[in-house]
Each structure stands twice: as structure tokens, then as C-alpha cells.
């Protein structure tokens, strides 16, 4: 810990040492000495260009690389209001006098349309503001048409990755899946500047998870403006589900505030079938359930510009989630001749209370106008969960109505997670390289408890042998350095290295068992871009990632869901590592990527079964290596004003090599995945649009599971009214009820099949109203204004 503190001090000293050189400071004024606020001042010389935004009083400051002659220009509200040559010598002080009345006649505004898809050194940029399909949509819908992004059953992902992190303006959004979707739907597409898809994250980002990052970049808030969105939706599947939300954005002078509040209430009805093919009999289960949702989530973000160089802010994300599940599990045990041997009927009732709170404090200080800056983040995350799971299992013989065996139980469980973290990031462009470096500390404490009560005889009796308390602590220290270099007008490269040290400790109260694990790992990153032409870029990148077990995966105790099913953690579970390599090519609206990845020491949930015992145990296990190769093609067709089509095709090969040769076999598969999302403009005013989407995936594998093929169609129509402030949309999802999958796994030569349908056929009616207005700012006339004008 002492070394980390010293490291932080060194980093801060390096940041301070980075500030040097020539500068210009001054004030923007009219000939009558009136202040010109919030204008952009730029100085340019050959390939050098630096800029700054003046404050509310017109003051500006810029750091320059050297003395010399520069061209200074001033923009106000998109208009060029001043342009002249200026000589800089050391620390130059100069006020700029601008006659706003004269510039109004001479102004020419030039609008440059950005490319729809741009390839940067470490990410792909989708400029949402140039997409017809994204018009009048929200952030969640915009992600659905973003190249390289896939959305399946409300799970957001990146093609070729098993996980994804969502960021907004480079700040991680820590919300559950349902709350995250509600939050994304509160962001209007009109407020989004671009969406960045980072397949292989650079060293600046944490190495956790073989995941990519989706970073939603918002447009700069309108100055002195209040805007908001009120939305609601009604979804009908087997049961109904309602969503309601409100978002408010406020910007005035130095204060920027964004907020949202969302509520979801209703239920869905997933359906599952599970088959075990034993040598002498078959075990067939049907799971019917109704899952109730009752979620309240919110976000509040406040930023304050202390000066024109330093901004501080605070962000809160929170949610209260009270889901409930009523379900029945019916198991049919049949002989090899398909004769019913017995039946097990298990009704269950689960009630959960969850609360999560994420608090972030951040500050960004621009050290100069050359791009040097230092940012600091301090985060606290709190998660509390209490669950009450009741079930009873009755075993029946054929033609009998009285159970031959009966068991009922009540599982009470709780989980309390606290995560503290802090990080510092520094960017310091040098003459020969753009350098960034930083450090992070995180501390995790997880307390979980399970109390098992046997209620078979009508009384509640605590079973200490099936109850447990588990405490898990994890501390991680990390530092990174990354350098970006323009080798020439065509070549650009970026190298990075992240060092992470992790210490874990798990303690089981019932088993009196303590498990510790300490490891230090290095995670390199490499990027190389070649600019073939203005519209054509070739890129190569590599990185290494780590996947750590969840806290529940490490808890060695058993958690029973039925008489014959339980889950059990593995305290000896180790993290696994993934090496990723990608070659990409982009040309206008085309994007192609050839990729490969290799997983070592992989772990997954394995359902252990035996022909001599009907009990099914689900235990996470390190047992496989996996190799993946693939090619991704993405194309946006937008040549016509009435039709935009976003298309994606992914062909990949996966092979899982099992280390448990007597338990799990090696599996492999070639897979084809295609999707097409289309938007059609139906009238000349562009207020009526139709949407049609299609997704197909051939048979595939996921670690030790084989997955069947599936496909589905979505369609919708959207109407804009009241100058496009009111949006009304009607959507039909999974129209033909074909979004169903079967997962197959073979353990100890016993075939397991899990058929899964998640109630995806549904119709949704949604309404959204956007409002906004400018805020008047009154300038107070001071008592000595006239006297001040007499000062030379």
C-alpha cells in the first residue's frame, strides 16, 4: 500500500511538471467594454491548433508549444466573429475587441457532415446524428443499429465478446440489466453525438472480463437551456408490463444537471424444459413461472465549472428492485420404454428485495490548451439483497394421488456488497508522443448468508448443516501507461501496458474454511492503423483480458432450489485469461473485421449428474481451453433519403477443449449470424416511419454447451407529431415466436437438454414527449458602470 501511495504522488508530480511553455491570456470585449461570454478562441500555426472556451466574463487562457506568429480566430454561437494574425512571445497578455454588429453582415457558416462510421486507433465511432434510423429514437434503439453491437433478449453485447460494459461520456454505468435498459431509454438520440465501440479496450480501462466497451458520447449541453423527456410504454406478451420515465436536463452558466427517474411494473412468463437422458431412464422437467417486476431506478448527475480549466461533478445511480417469482417444476421420470415411473411436483415462491446505490465524485483539470489534463474519480457502490425462497416437493407413484415422499423448505438469504475505488488518469501530449498514464485502487467486501429451514412437518426448523455465512474480500491495485504516436501522415500506433495486483480472501463460517489467492498479472495492448485514403482505414490490434469469478461462484456452500437440485460454489476457482487479436478494415459505410481469441483455464457452470444418483449439482469449474476465429461484415445502406438499412454478418468457428476428458467432451462448431434492421420514411415531412428487423443464428457453442439455431422478426411504425416533439411508436417483437433455443451438454456420458423460451413474442405501444426552452439570464447593471467606461 505504501508503494501505491508513493506512486500516486509521483504521478501528480509528473502532471505538474508537464505544464510549461508559452501562453496567451486575455479577455473578449466589445468596443463599449461589454464582456463576450462563452466564445471559442483558437490559435493555429501550420499543423498546430489549440483552442479554449472563454468563461462567462470573457476571460480566456491558452498554453502554446512555442513563440511565433499565429492566426487567432473567435467563434460565437457557430459564427466566426473575429480573425487576425498575432505574435506570441513568452506569456502574452492581450484583450480582443470585437464589434459584434459588423460581424453579423460578414458571417458565413460552413457545415461539415461527419462520416457515418469512423475508424480511430482503438475504437469504431458511429456518428448517430447522421443516421436516419436513429432519428426520434432513444439510446437503446440507437445501439440496436450500431455496427458491431448485438441485442438479444434485452442483453446488450458486442459481436465476438461475451460481455460488455456501458459508459456515458467515459463514465461507467453500474446498473442491473433491467435498470440499464430503462436508463438508456431515457436518453434521446438527438442528444447523442456518437457511439464508440471499443472491441479491445486499451490499457486505460480495467482488464476485467473478455468484454468490449460501448461509450455513448453526448452532445455538449445547450447553454442556458432546460429540456426534458416524459415517456411511457405498455407491453403485452402473455402478461402485461408497463414502463414510465421522466428525464430532466438543465444547463445554466457554470452548472450542468442531468437526471432521470424510471419505474417498471408488470410480469413476464418464461418457459423451460429440461431433459436428462440416463442409461436406464429419462428425467424430464417442465418449468412454468411468472416473474413479477417492480423496479424503481434513477440517475442524478451534477457538474460545476470551477474555472474555465477545472470541472468537478458528482453522479448518483440507484435503484430499488422488488422482483417476485411464482413457479412450478414438474418432473416426469420414465423408464427406457417410456413408461411413467414417478412424478415430482415442486411449486415455489421467491420474493426478493434489492437496493443498489452508486456514488461517483469526479474532477477534470485541463492543464493547458495542448491537451494536457488530469482527472480523478472516487467511487462507492453499495448493494443489498434479501431473498425468501419457499418450495415444496411431492413425489407421486403412478395412479396415486397421495405423495409417497414430501419435503418443504424455506431458504432465507442475504447479500451485502461494498465496493470502494479511486483512480487518477493523466494525459500529457509531448513533442514525440501522446502519453497517458494512471493508477487505480479498489476494495471489495461481500457478506452473504443462507438460512435453510425445514418446514416438512408444519414447523420451521433451522438446519445448520444446510445454512452458511460467507465473507469475501478482494483488493486490487493497478497502474498503466499508454503512448500514441503518429508515425507519418499514413501510419499511427498505440502501445499500452497495465499491471494489476489482486489479493482475495474467502471465509465460510459453517465449514470453517479460509481460502486465499494472490496474483500479479500484466496486460499488454497494441494498436496499428494505416490510412489508405480519406475514406479507407486498415487497423490491427491486440490485448489480453482476465475474467474473475463472481462472489457466489467462490462460496463453497450448497443452495437448494428443489429436493433434487442445488448449486454449490468452488473456493478454488481461478480466473481465466483471453488473448484477442483483430485485423479490421473500414471504407465509408463498410466495416470488416477478422478476429481470433484464445481462452486458457476457462471456467463455467457444470451440471454434474450420475447414473446412480438423481441429484443434479451445478458447480463452477475450471476445465476448458477455447479457440475462436471469425470474420465480421457490417454495412449501412443509406443512399436513399427514404430508406436506411443497417446490416451485419458474422461467420465464426469455436472449439472448446475440455480438461475433464472423462466428464466433458471436446466440442466445436461453425456458426453464421446475420441481422438486418431497416427504416423506411413513409411521407414527405419524414414524420412517419416503418421499421423491419431480422436476426438469424445457426447452431453454435458456448463453452461446454451446444446451442440450437434461432431466428426472429421485429416490425414497427413510428409517428412524430407537434414538430417532432411527440413520438408514438407501435412495435411487434418476435412476430412468429421463433426466438427459442435449446442448450445441450454431455456430462459423464449423460446428455442434458435445456429448452429455453423467454416470453419474447410481444407488442409494445410507447409514447415519448420532449420539451425544452431557453433560460433568460439577466445582466445586473452595476452602480459604477459609467465611471468604469472612463478608464483608459
TrEMBL record:
Gene3D superfamilies: TonB-dependent receptor, beta-barrel domain (2.40.170.20). InterPro entries: Beta-barrel_TonB_sf, OMP_b-brl_3. Its main location: membrane. This is Outer membrane protein beta-barrel domain-containing protein. Residues 366-769 form the Outer membrane protein beta-barrel domain. Keywords: Cell outer membrane, Membrane. It is found in: Cell outer membrane. One of its GO terms (cellular component) is cell outer membrane. Pfam families: OMP_b-brl_3. It comes from the Bacteria.
Amino acid at each position: 500500500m505504501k508503494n501505491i501511495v508513493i506512486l500516486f504522488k509521483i504521478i501528480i508530480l509528473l502532471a505538474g511538471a508537464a505544464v510549461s511553455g508559452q501562453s496567451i491570456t486575455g479577455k473578449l470585449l466589445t468596443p463599449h467594454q461589454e464582456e463576450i461570454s462563452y466564445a471559442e478562441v483558437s490559435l493555429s500555426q501550420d499543423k498546430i491548433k489549440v483552442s479554449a472556451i472563454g468563461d462567462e466574463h470573457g476571460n480566456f487562457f491558452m498554453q502554446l508549444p512555442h513563440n511565433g506568429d499565429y492566426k487567432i480566430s473567435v467563434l460565437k454561437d457557430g459564427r466566426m466573429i473575429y480573425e487576425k494574425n498575432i505574435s506570441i512571445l513568452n506569456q502574452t497578455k492581450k484583450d480582443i475587441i470585437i464589434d459584434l454588429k459588423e460581424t453579423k453582415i460578414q458571417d458565413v457558416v460552413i457545415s461539415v457532415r461527419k462520416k457515418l462510421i469512423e475508424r480511430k486507433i482503438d475504437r469504431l465511432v458511429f456518428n448517430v446524428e447522421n443516421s436516419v434510423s436513429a432519428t426520434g429514437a432513444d439510446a437503446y434503439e440507437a445501439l440496436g443499429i450500431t455496427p458491431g453491437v448485438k441485442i438479444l433478449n434485452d442483453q446488450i453485447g458486442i459481436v465476438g465478446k461475451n460481455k460488455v460494459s456501458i459508459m456515458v461520456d467515459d463514465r461507467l454505468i453500474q446498473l442491473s440489466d433491467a435498470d440499464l435498459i430503462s436508463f438508456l431509454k431515457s436518453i434521446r438520440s438527438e442528444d447523442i453525438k456518437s457511439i464508440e465501440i471499443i472491441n479491445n479496450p486499451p490499457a486505460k480501462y480495467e482488464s476485467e472480463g473478455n468484454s468490449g466497451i460501448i461509450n455513448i458520447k453526448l452532445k455538449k449541453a445547450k447553454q442556458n437551456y432546460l429540456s426534458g423527456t416524459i415517456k411511457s410504454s405498455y407491453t403485452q406478451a402473455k402478461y402485461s408490463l408497463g414502463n414510465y420515465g421522466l428525464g430532466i436536463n438543465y444547463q445554466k452558466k457554470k452548472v450542468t444537471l442531468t437526471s432521470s427517474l424510471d419505474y417498471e411494473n408488470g410480469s413476464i412468463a418464461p418457459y423451460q424444459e429440461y431433459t436428462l437422458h440416463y442409461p436406464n431412464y429419462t428425467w424430464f422437467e417442465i418449468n412454468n413461472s411468472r416473474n413479477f417486476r417492480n423496479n424503481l431506478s434513477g440517475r442524478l448527475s451534477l457538474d460545476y465549472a470551477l474555472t474555465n480549466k477545472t470541472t468537478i461533478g458528482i453522479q448518483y445511480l440507484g435503484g430499488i428492485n422488488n422482483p417476485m417469482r411464482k413457479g412450478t417444476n414438474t418432473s416426469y421420470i420414465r423408464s427406457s420404454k417410456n413408461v411413467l415411473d414417478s412424478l415430482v411436483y415442486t411449486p415455489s415462491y421467491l420474493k426478493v428485495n434489492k437496493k443498489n446505490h452508486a456514488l461517483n465524485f469526479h474532477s477534470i483539470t485541463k492543464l493547458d490548451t495542448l491537451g494536457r489534463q488530469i482527472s480523478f474519480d472516487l467511487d462507492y457502490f453499495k448493494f443489498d439483497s434479501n431473498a425468501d425462497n419457499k418450495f415444496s416437493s411431492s413425489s407421486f407413484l403412478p395412479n396415486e394421488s397421495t405423495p409417497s415422499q414430501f419435503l418443504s423448505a424455506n431458504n432465507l438469504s442475504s447479500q451485502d456488497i461494498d465496493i470502494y475505488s479511486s483512480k487518477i488518469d493523466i494525459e500529457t501530449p509531448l513533442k514525440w508522443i501522446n502519453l497517458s498514464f494512471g493508477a487505480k485502487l479498489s476494495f471489495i467486501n461481500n457478506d452473504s448468508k443462507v438460512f435453510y429451514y425445514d418446514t416438512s412437518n408444519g414447523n420451521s426448523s433451522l438446519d445448520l448443516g444446510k445454512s452458511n455465512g460467507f465473507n469475501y474480500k478482494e483488493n486490487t491495485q493497478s497502474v498503466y501507461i499508454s503512448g500514441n504516436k503518429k508515425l507519418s501522415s499514413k501510419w499511427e500506433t498505440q502501445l499500452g501496458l497495465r499491471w494489476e495486483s489482486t489479493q482475495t480472501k474467502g471465509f465460510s463460517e459453517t465449514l470453517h474454511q479460509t481460502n486465499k489467492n494472490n496474483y500479479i498479472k500484466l496486460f499488454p495492448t497494441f494498436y496499428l492503423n494505416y490510412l489508405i485514403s480519406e475514406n479507407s482505414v486498415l487497423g490491427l490490434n491486440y490485448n489480453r483480458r482476465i475474467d474473475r469469478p463472481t462472489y457466489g461462484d467462490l462460496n463453497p456452500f450448497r443452495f437448494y432450489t428443489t429436493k433434487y437440485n442445488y448449486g454449490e460454489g468452488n473456493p478454488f476457482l481461478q480466473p481465466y485469461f483471453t488473448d484477442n487479436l483483430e485485423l479490421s478494415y473500414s471504407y465509408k459505410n463498410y466495416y470488416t473485421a477478422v478476429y481470433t481469441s484464445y481462452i486458457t483455464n476457462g471456467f463455467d457452470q457444470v451440471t454434474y449428474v450420475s447414473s446412480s444418483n438423481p441429484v443434479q449439482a451445478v458447480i463452477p469449474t475450471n476445465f476448458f481451453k477455447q479457440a475462436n476465429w471469425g470474420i465480421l461484415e457490417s454495412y449501412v445502406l443509406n443512399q436513399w433519403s427514404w430508406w436506411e438499412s443497417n446490416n451485419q454478418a458474422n461467420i465464426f468457428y469455436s472449439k472448446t477443449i475440455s480438461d475433464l476428458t472423462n466428464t466433458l467432451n471436446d466440442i466445436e462448431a461453425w456458426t453464421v449470424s446475420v441481422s438486418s434492421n431497416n427504416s423506411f420514411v413513409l411521407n414527405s415531412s419524414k414524420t412517419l416511419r416503418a421499421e423491419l428487423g431480422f436476426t438469424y443464428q445457426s447452431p453454435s457453442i458456448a463453452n461446454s454447451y451446444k446451442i440450437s439455431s434461432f431466428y426472429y422478426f421485429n416490425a414497427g411504425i413510428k409517428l412524430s407529431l407537434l414538430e417532432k416533439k411527440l413520438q408514438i411508436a407501435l412495435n411487434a417483437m418476435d412476430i412468429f415466436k421463433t426466438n427459442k433455443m435449446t442448450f445441450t451438454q454431455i456430462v459423464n456420458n449423460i446428455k442434458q437438454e435445456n429448452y429455453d423460451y423467454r416470453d419474447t413474442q410481444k407488442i409494445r405501444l410507447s409514447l415519448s414527449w420532449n420539451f425544452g426552452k431557453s433560460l433568460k439570464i439577466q445582466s445586473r447593471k452595476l452602480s459604477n458602470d459609467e465611471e468604469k467606461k472612463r478608464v483608459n
